[in-house]
Amino acid sequence: MEEVKVLFKPEVEHFLNELIYILYKENYFSYLENAIDYKDKIIDFIEENISNFPYKNTPLPLYSLGSKYIFYNSNSRTTWYVFFENEDHQYLITYIANNHTEIAKLLKP
Question: Which residues contact 1 (CB under 8 A, 6 or more apart)?
Answer without folding.
Answer: none
